[in-house]
Amino acid sequence: DVCSSDLPSRFRWYILALFCLLYLISYIDRGIMAIVAPEISEEFDLDLAQMGLILSVFTWGYAIAQIPVGYLGDRFGPRKVLSILMAFVSMSVSLTGAAINYAMLFVSRLFLGLSEAGAFPVASRGMQMWFHRSERGRIQGYTHFFSRFAVATTPLAAAPIVYFFGWRSVFFLAGFIGLLWIIIFLLSYRNNPKDHPKVNEAELAIIKKDSEDIHSNQERPKVPWRIILRSKNMLYICLGYGCFFFGTNFYLTWYPTYLREYRGLSLLELGILGSLPLLAGMAGDVVGGTLTDRILKKTGKPGFARKVVAAPGFALAAVFVIPAAMTDSVLLSMACLALSFFFLEFVIGPAWAVPMDVGGVYSGTVTGIMNMAGAFSASLTPIIYGYLFARDMWVAPFMVSAGVLFLGSLIWIFLIDPEQSVVKEKKYV
Predict the structure, then answer these.
(1) Model's pTM, two decimal places?
(2) How far apart are CA 407 and CA 318, in angstroms?
(3) What distance in Å separates the CA atoms of residue 103 and residue 287, rounded to the nearest whole number?
(4) DSSP assignment of 136-188
(5) E-state strands within 15-91
(6) Cystine design at 289: which of 137, 145, 240, 340 (Cβ 3.0–4.6 Å)?
(7) Which H/E stretch holds residue 131?
């Protein structure tokens, strides 16, 4: 019996694996559309502007439902809310595969956005209860590693499926995988680690060590909306994440089309060469998340540990995206995009650890607000890129991204306070 041992059990890492799979599946579901966009455009006779709307509508739904779903996660617990969300996700992605016209595509993508909204904020609340603050940057790095792994490998995995069975088949397969995850999650996860038979007292002590009271038995906490919405720090966190999401959403929307239409890559080349920047981003997730936690453990200064990773990450991402767009060499462009995305993904660990730290028992709601702001910002990416790409302007969008990323660096340096609670009028200590 693992719980009778004097050594700490390690079941929280199994729980982390479940959340990593959640992030993987979610990004497969939302990323398939970008991979098969040329095939869908041809079948339904869509121009780039129309496809830009299809790519954007997911983000609109995703943004709208962030706060209410994050709140539901705080109120009813991650286990129940995530299971219901993923059931709707599987249904929505399957509906996309069954689409027979433009309107059905539009509606199915909207419902997918609404269904996936709040999944990551609710998951963050779930992980907050299973991991100590000194591990949160790392676990956010790991989970987002798998989301980027999905983006990097989906083109390679989807290409033969699309070739042999058509574009609709990948949506049906994704829906089935989501249903399998729900079964495993319900069998394995508990909202509070103390309620799980595979967690012993030693591991529970690690999880709760020197932490704020995030394991409250209160199932329906009353959200201090007035304090949250009046918090300047909450506003700055939202602005910073908006800059991040604007930069990363290119890779989830127009990136495959950019490589195929402007850089001249085939579908096979897209799956191989086009994955290199995304693989670099995965490394950035782990390196950035691990680095911020190590600095926190060494210095004991959360503000410094989060800022010193996020701010340079933004700045270096901006620096490298400029030559990536301007060079005529495909290989050099891929190398610069890889470096840009590597440093941009440094931001993800600090960015998602901060709401867990400053949100307390309301971290699902706080993270939902942050993610909503990011999603609204991200919804501009496919529209701006699509508008400029349609006018044969293939460099200008990247200059816009560079400016946004530089702005993100300044926000993290001068405005965001990783130690200032957004639900209380005091700092965590």
Answers:
(1) 0.78
(2) 10
(3) 42
(4) HHHHHHHHHHHHHHHHHHHHHHHHHHHHHH-HHHHHHHHHHHHHHHHHHHHHH
(5) none
(6) 137
(7) none
Q: Report angle CA 276, 20, 243 to the nearest 5 degrees.
A: 60
Q: In angstroms, rounded to a whole number, what is the distance separating the alpha carbons of residues 242 and 265?
A: 30
301 backbone φψ class: left, alpha, beta (φ>0; ψ -120 to 50): beta
Dihedral-angle region of residue 5 (phi above 0 means left; psi in -120 to 50 means alpha; beta otherwise): beta
Note the pLDDT tens digit of each residue in 2-58: 444 578 888 999 999 999 999 999 989 988 887 888 888 888 888 877 887 887 788
pLDDT, one tens digit per residue, over 399-426 is 999 999 999 999 999 999 999 999 986 5
- Please state, in angstroms and rounded to a whole number, the distance separating the CA atoms of residues 205 and 270: 47
Backbone phi, then psi, for 307, in 5-degree steps?
-65, -40
**Are 11 and 134 spatial neighbours (Cβ–Cβ below 8 Å)?**
no
The three-state DSSP-derived secondary structure of 246-311 is HHHHHHHCCHHHHHHHCCCCCHHHHHHHHHHHHHHHHHHHHHHHHHHHHHHHHHCCHHHHHHHHHH
Contact 136, 297 (CB under 8 A): no
The values of phi and psi at residue 404, to 5°, are -65, -40
Query: Length of the chain, please?
Result: 429
Instruction: Note whether 23 and 143 are within 8 A (CB).
Output: yes
Q: What is the pLDDT of residues 255-264, one digit of tens each?
A: 878 888 888 8
Alpha carbons 221 and 42: distance in angstroms, whole number: 50
C-beta atoms surrounding 133 within 10 Å: 19
Listed ranges 145-149, 203-207, 336-340; the one with the highest mean pLDDT: 336-340
pLDDT tens figures, 133-173 = 888 889 989 998 998 888 777 877 887 888 888 899 999 99
Residue 214 has pLDDT above 70, yes or no: no
Answer for the pair 193, 12: CB distance below 8 angstroms, yes or no.
yes
Tell me the C-alpha distance between 40 and 25, whole Å. 21
Phi, psi of 17 (to 5 degrees): -60, -40
